[in-house]
Amino acid sequence: MLYTRPPKVEVVEGDVLEARVSDIVVPVFKGGDGNVKLEGIVERADSLTGGALSRAVKAGRFKGDVGEVFTGYTDDGRAIHFVGAGSEGDEEAKRLENARNAMAAAVKGIVEKSGEAALALKPLGSAGAEGLVGALLGAYRFEAFKNEKKAKLSKVYVDLDRGEAGEAVAVAEGVYLARDIANAPPHEVAPPRLAEKLRDLFSQLENVEVEIFDYDRLLREGFGGIVNVGRGSEEKPRLIVIKYNGGEGEPIALVGKTLVFDSGGINLKPSQSLYEMRADKAGGAAVAGAAWAVARLHLKVNLVALLPAAINVPSGSSYLTSDVIRMWDGTYVEVTNTDAEGRLVLADALAYAAKALGAREIIDLATLTGAAWIALGPLYAALFTRDDTLAKSIEESSRRTGEKVWRLPLVDEYKVMLGRKAPLGEVANAAMRAGGAICAALFLERFTHGKKWAHIDIAGPGIGSDAGPMAPKYWPQNLAPGWGVRLLVDYIKSKASTAK
Ligand code: BES
Ligand code: MN
Ligand code: ZN
């Protein structure tokens, strides 16, 4: 949504098989016996193609596995893409993921060919709207910096309720925004530019205010973590605060690590680790995307998204290893490693959310540690919280959305090391290598000042580009998937008051 919008969606009454478009997508289920079910709309579509599907099934050329596509043609030259959508008897979470994967796979095959397509989503039952989300996400292309644009698909016709379709579009827009931010070349979205772009974008929405803390203000108000991490770049840091007022009471705060680029700073990373560090802003990207979707959906909730945005590079003005920095909440942090920068910018934003914004609870997303990525790989994020109820709600949203989290412990015994490694200050920003994701989480916890809080380390799925064939089909290849938007929106939806 900085660069890319999802295809337009139009609701059609009646039969999608009658749509006058070049491409029609029809999901196909397997029965209990594992065989393709040739019933209902599948049967009618099959006969429109002169029985092409049933022949393919008979010949063993189409098994109906999730995401498998078989294309037949009608007499008037329209393509019907049959796509395997799993078994109707699958449990709910799996049906939702199958619907997203199936529709994404089908759309990926036509996004560069077709201007308009019709999607049969009703056969997916309660997973219909998720099917649309999958289709829209599967259509994503990052083409802002290509002269020749390949994506042609501009509109899809769907047989959903208007409300369901609208929700799917809002969520897809949020994910598009997150993908655009996470994948953008660093200088295109240097902190001052990112701030302006988000201010412009969100000005379209009702009940949303964007507040930008510029460098002078960050200095004046003592945001030592953000200032020090960002001071080495000519493009100075910003704290971007997106406020959505849709309900009553204290806001839920979302905090997203927004390292527009993380070179490691004076503790410079080796070359092979640098390239993907443009996606070190994936946390901020996700919370911005979630705020967008929540505001578009007019959810009855107050929400604040905080994006501490900085570029971590070595220069004559960079912060130095063994500097001691005074954080926004007054804590003195000894910098034992300038590459442990995420926790410094997050700490200021967390403390500000807890103490100045009076958040009722805080969730942060951050590509925080290589350790979380090594532990869980590209598909799982590490979830940390002391609050079992909060963990449970997030895990439920995780199951519904297919954005996978795995809970790791906050190990109290490890806390002592933060102080032990800081002879000059009160705590070290990096204390030990073993249990790196846990130590980072423990560092953050200090700055939440007792608030209800969850930390999600998205180092694996936030970057995601190494997921290759393991990735869901609605993820873009070699790009950040915009991970966390759908999880957060689902979670916030479950918290928002349902009163109209
Ligand atoms: N952004 C990185 C973490 C990261 C690495 C995310 C690889 C995704 C893929 C973070 O700022 C970092 O450099 N963390 C260090 C911390 C260490 C110096 C204590 C790490 O994990 O090595
Ligand atoms: Mn780093
Ligand atoms: Zn980083």
Task: Give the terminus-to-terminus CA distance.
Answer: 28 Å
Q: Give the oligomeric state of the chains in this entry, treating copies of one chain as homo and distinct chains as hetero.
A: single chain
CATH class of the largest domain: Alpha Beta
Overall pLDDT confidence: 97
- Determine the fraction of residues in helical runs and give it as a percent range: 25-40%
Fraction of residues in β-strands: 15-25%
Uncertain segments: none
Name given to the CATH homologous superfamily of the largest domain: Zn peptidases
Give the count of helical stretches: 15
Q: Could you say which small molecules are bound to this protein?
A: ligand BES, manganese (II) ion, zinc ion
> Total strand count, please?
18
CATH architecture field of the largest domain:
3-Layer(aba) Sandwich
Determine Rg (CA atoms, Å): 24 Å
Overall, the morphology is elongated
- The helix/strand class is alpha/beta
CATH topology of the largest domain: Aminopeptidase
Major beta-sheet overview:
9 strands, mixed
Q: What does the model show?
A:
The structure is a single chain. Helices cover 34% and strands 20% of the residues. By secondary structure, the chain is of the alpha/beta class. It folds into two domains: 153 residues, Leucine Aminopeptidase, subunit E, domain 1, CATH 3.40.220; 311 residues, Aminopeptidase. Strand 3 and strand 4 form a beta hairpin. Helix 9 packs across helix 15 and helix 10 packs parallel to helix 14. The two termini are 28 Å apart. The model has no long low-confidence stretch (mean pLDDT 97). The site of manganese (II) ion has 4 residues, from loops.
